[in-house]
From TrEMBL:
UniProt protein name: Glutathione S-transferase family protein
Matches recorded under Gene3D superfamilies: 3.40.30.110
Domain GST C-terminal: 81-237
Domain GST N-terminal: 1-78
Organism: Ferrimonas aestuarii
Length: 314
């Protein structure tokens, strides 16, 4: 397992913590907070969000799909979004979106600048701030009074819910790992403790933090490139019940950073779309996207409704 990530990425921390929870050994490729990222960009065809999980010449995009893959690979269904009930899914979606944006915006600006300056030049810092301003406008979350009010109310609600070590019992599930990145950034990175009125939530955070990140092996840019060059994409189960199979499509997020990734649709499953790109550097690459929170479009840019299909072989 090779994770493309960077230190301050909340969604990367979500996956790093899952790997620690499962006591996994994994390969790491640290990328820049902003494009260009030469090797990663060549593998993803323009998809710009981090993290991605690389498995040879297969690339998994979005932390939700990465967690789904880990849950199957590690036989850990508690890490799978699609194993949650509807109420839990709604909470996970909120924690991954508005809640996270508000948490980040609650951090003192000077503290944020200090963190960013550790890994960015002055020019890089300016680019990062301008980029994130654009993302905030696209997302339309994180700055409203209503957003802050819901954030505070959610913290109180979670405090009341914690009658056991984790949100839904004696062990964590996917929702715990959605909550953690926001509080990790506020408490561990921005060094802002939670109010004293939230002792259970503070204790929960320490329990989650103790999972760590597992055993990590850092890879160089050349090693990552060779991993893709020396592999071919996994064999896919034949799927013949989607009208766009073997046709040119594009896939992109619905909320923010909506850059489209283009390719040929080669598989449609219960939870993902897989598109193939032919690259000069790596040959064929399969790029996997979740079908939740993303749109599949035809060559004319028209959204294609999702249909039932078979599952990708693992």
């Amino acid at each position: 397992m090779l994770l493309h990530h960077y230190a301050l990425s909340p969604f990367s921390e979500k996956i790093r913590l899952m790997l620690g929870y499962q006591q996994q050994s994994w390969s790491s490729f640290v990328v820049a907070p902003l494009p260009p990222r030469p090797v990663t960009d060549a593998l993803t065809g323009g998809y710009r969000r981090i993290p991605i999980l690389q498995q040879g010449a297969d690339v998994l995009c979005d932390s939700k799909l990465i967690a789904h893959d880990l849950s199957r690979r590690l036989q850990a269904p508690e890490l799978d979004y699609w194993q949650l009930n509807q109420e839990q899914q709604q909470l996970a979606d909120y924690l991954d979106s508005e809640f996270l944006f508000v948490a980040l915006n609650s951090c003192p600006p000077l503290k944020l600048l200090g963190l960013l300056k550790q890994s960015l030049s002055v020019w890089g810092l300016a680019r990062f701030m301008w980029d994130r301003l654009g993302i905030a406008k696209e997302a339309k979350e994180g700055g409203s009074k209503g957003g802050y009010r819901r954030y505070r109310q959610q913290l109180q609600s979670l405090e009341q819910q914690l009658q056991q070590p984790f949100l839904y019992g004696d062990s964590p599930n996917y929702v715990d790992f959605c909550l953690y990145p926001s509080l990790w950034f506020v408490m561990a990175k921005a060094e802002q403790p939670l109010p004293e009125s939230l002792p259970k939530l503070t204790a929960w955070f320490k329990r989650m933090q103790a999972f760590g990140h597992g055993n990590i092996q850092e890879l160089s840019r050349g090693e990552v490139a060779r991993l893709a060059q020396e592999h071919t994409p996994k064999t896919l189960v034949q799927t013949d019940n989607h009208p766009m199979l073997d046709k040119p499509v594009s896939v992109g997020p619905l909320d923010y950073a909506r850059d489209q990734t283009q390719g040929t649709l080669v598989a449609v499953t219960a939870h993902r779309w897989v598109i193939k790109q032919k690259t000069e550097r790596f040959g064929d690459v399969h790029i996997h996207f979740p079908n939740t929170g993303y749109a599949l479009r035809d060559a004319d840019g028209q959204v294609i409704p999702d249909t039932d299909a078979l599952e990708v072989s693992q």
